[in-house]
Design brief:
mainly alpha, 18 helices, elongated
């Protein structure tokens, strides 16, 4: 731009102040476009840097994760071992059945290392005598369990309390606490059972459950119909007796409708049978108008309640006990119908029912038990060593029934009448030449509770006779009889049939653990105190 003036005027100097255009003087689009390349370059640089950062972080994380997984997998491989996942009685070692009455491996069983420090009172037994409260328990504080019902009188609590704490078995003499876990195994071993006898029990239970009716009952006469087989040996037309004995055989091996783990195999069979029985019981607690059957059914329902404490069974069980109480005759005995003068055979089943009710914590009047003893006196010989059917004319079968009742009612092993009676039974030991499972069922229990030399002599004969006589399914025409016992030739085979004789045989082979020995004081109460308190 030229300055105004003459011919000698010089060129204009550059301006020092930039002219800034005001808005609207020119278009800004051109300036904005000039910035786009810078933005693109900056964005690319940031994306590249961020990607590199993420790649480094993920790589380090993956390496750490792979290292950690490698360590974990290594530990798993080192600690792998087979686990017993079917044992519901899980303790420190799931492969070891846990229960009470288990022999200790060490002198003291406590967490941590075993030491030789004194257990109990400080400085015992060398220190000065000290007076401490007795532990709550049976027999005037002579052991554990009970006591908690009456804090003001230690040891005077309910004898039905569980030994050892929550959920423990009722280790009461004659009770049900030996039917599972380590106690069962110990009772089996000490009592003289073996693998073959347990295999026979397992086979017999399998046969029973195959011949159960769809509605849950078992019948003496038509078990083969429900089993869809041609098994021989039908018995009398008696479904309640068949169901009761089959239930007793299953429950004798620890099977209940609440069973889990290894004792759940036949839980549904037991459940259906109990439902059928409850549906047949009337409002007065009566299952049957036959005295034999009422006694059997009451034993079964009381055991079912005692083994599970199922509240839905308490009512039916207590009503059944009340029906037995109402059944008692004027002489204190029980017979075919209510209020009749008793006979020893029916009397035996009702005494078992009353004792099962007591051991399950149900109410049994003392007056009824007093009547039981009155009848036993009526049918016994003067020294009590023998029993007759309705009077004191003894027979081996009725002597076995009467002696078991005496044991449950309080006779101890030193009672002269009991000792002499057991010697009488030893003169008619188990033998294939004398088929009488009704006699063996009672006599085996009597001798088992007595123990000693009598049991050592009796048990191998009884055990091996039953094992050897069990049907092994060798008859090609009657394979389904495997696991059962033939009723042909038995003294009561016509009434019980194959199903009933099989049940009695199973109950006899379960004698080792079905009821805890009456005279094993380390398993529970002192006998006299237990009887006095209704056990």
């Amino acid at each position: 731009m030229a300055m105004k003036g003459g011919m000698n005027s010089q060129p204009a100097a550059p301006q020092l102040i930039k002219n800034i255009p005001t808005p609207g003087d020119e278009d800004t689009t051109t300036d904005m476009r000039r910035l786009i390349p810078a933005w693109i370059i900056s964005g690319v640089i940031h994306v590249v840097l961020l990607s590199l950062f993420l790649l480094v972080t993920v790589s380090q994380g993956q390496g750490s994760m792979q290292t950690e997984l490698s360590v974990i997998e290594s530990k798993v491989e080192e600690d792998v071992r087979d686990k017993n996942l079917t044992n519901d009685e899980i303790g420190n070692d799931p492969d070891l059945p846990t229960n009470y009455n288990v022999d200790r491996i060490e002198e003291v069983s406590v967490p941590g290392p075993v030491t030789n420090d004194a257990v109990g009172i400080l400085n015992a037994p060398d220190g000065p005598p000290q007076t401490i409260p007795p532990p709550p328990g049976f027999g005037g504080s002579a052991g554990q369990g009970g006591g908690i019902d009456d804090p003001s009188r230690i040891g005077a609590g309910n004898l039905y309390g569980t030994a050892g704490g929550m959920g423990g078995p009722k280790l009461v003499p004659g009770g049900f606490g030996g039917r599972s876990g380590a106690t069962r195994e110990k009772m089996l071993r000490e009592g003289g059972g073996n693998t073959r006898s347990e295999a026979a029990v397992a086979a017999g239970l399998k046969w029973l459950t195959r011949h159960q009716a769809a509605d849950g009952h078992w019948g003496f006469n038509d078990f083969n119909v429900h089993g869809k087989c041609n098994c021989s040996g039908p018995g009398a037309h008696e479904d309640m007796a068949g169901t009761s004995l089959a239930l007793l055989a299953l429950q004798g091996a620890g099977e209940t409708h609440k069973g889990v783990g290894k004792h759940s195999l036949y839980a549904k069979h037991v459940e259906r049978a109990l439902a059928w029985m409850k549906a047949k019981q009337n409002g007065d607690g009566v299952f049957s108008g036959n005295g034999y059957v009422q006694g059997m059914a009451t034993v079964a329902i009381c055991e079912a309640y005692g083994l599970t404490a199922d509240p839905q069974l308490k009512g039916p069980a207590q009503r059944a006990i009340q029906a037995v109480v109402n059944w008692q005759g004027p002489d204190g005995g029980f017979r075919y119908g209510p209020k009749q003068a008793g006979d020893t055979s029916v009397h035996g089943w009702h005494v078992q029912a009353l004792k099962s009710g007591q051991m399950s914590g149900l109410n049994v009047p003392n007056a009824t038990l007093a009547g039981v003893n009155n009848f036993l006196e009526k049918v016994s010989t003067p020294d009590g060593s023998g029993c007759g059917y309705t009077g004191p004319q003894p027979t081996p079968r009725m002597t076995a029934v009467g002696l078991l009742c005496r044991q449950y009612m309080g006779w101890g092993p030193r009672n002269p009448g009991l000792s002499k009676g057991v010697e009488t039974l030893r003169k008619l030991p188990p033998a294939n030449t004398h088929k009488d499972m009704y006699y063996y069922y009672y006599a085996t229990q009597v001798v088992h509770h007595m123990g000693g030399a009598a049991w050592d002599e009796w048990n191998p004969k009884m055990r091996d006779m039953l094992i050897d006589s069990q049907d092994q399914g060798q008859n090609a025409d009657r394979r389904d009889q495997k696991g059962s016992w033939d009723s042909a030739g038995d003294a009561f085979g016509g009434q019980f049939g194959r199903l009933g004789i099989t049940c009695l045989s199973l109950l006899t082979l379960e004698v080792y653990y079905r009821h805890l020995p009456l005279y094993r004081r380390e398993l529970g109460a002192a006998k006299e105190e237990a009887v006095k308190n209704g056990l």
